[in-house]
Amino acid sequence: MKTLKIPFEKKLYAAGFKLLNILGPITGVSIIIGNLTIIYLQTRPQELPVTHILTHGERTFKLSVASTPEQLEKGLKFRTSLNGDCGMLFNLGKEIYNVPFWMYKVNFPLDIFYIKDNVVTTVVYNAEPCHKTPCPIYKGRVANQVLELAPGAANIKVGDRLNIQPLSVLPKN
Q: Strand pairing of 50-56 and 59-66?
């Protein structure tokens, strides 16, 4: 049996190769730009709104709250600083024993307070930033929340009862 060569096939192949020569570089550039965008977004600090207030002694702290797994994982990573009157509250969702926290890719030291039912169970003062693994892992005895503040911003110690309130519950003046 003889195979017939149809000129149309040659034109189709030529058009396909021309299309690949055009789309190939466009696809390559798109993949590079997409990957760079993903890397950029992953290394940006998260900007959670202030939703809670901590009152301790004469001090008041504005708190952002991390609750989802993604928010809990990112925490204060990649930020350049933390104001002395601000902090982050991590809602763990349940009571956890030996709660591990680390300072990987956090750019400044922090005081870490492990809290169970508004009572401080463990304190780590001046936890140092870490930029390469392995990093020290700081463990709290038991907690359902963890609070991170600038070092020395609050005179909080084990056994203190913390007054953390959502903004919506605060009395209006």
A: antiparallel
Give per-residue pLDDT as tens, 34-48. Answer: 665 555 555 678 889
What per-residue string of b and e applies to 96-112 under the rule 16 or more CB within 10 Å gives b? eeebebbbbbbeebbbb
pTM: predicted TM-score of the whole model, two decimal places? 0.75
- Residue 75 neighbours by CB under 8 Å, 6+ apart: 46, 66, 88, 90, 106, 148
Q: If DSSP states are collapsed to H, E and C, what string results for the chain?
A: CCCCCCHHHHHHHHHHHHHHHHHHHHHHHHHHHHHHHHHHHHCCCCCCCEEEEEEECCEEEEEEEECCHHHHHHCCCCCCCCCCCEEEEEEEEEEEEEEEEECECCCCCEEEEEEECCEEEEEEEEECCECCCCCCEEEEEEEEEEEEECCCCCCCCCCCECEEEEHHHCCCC
Query: Is residue 123 within 8 Å of residue 112, measured between CB atoms?
Result: yes
Widest CA span in the chain: 97
**101 bridge partner residues:** 138
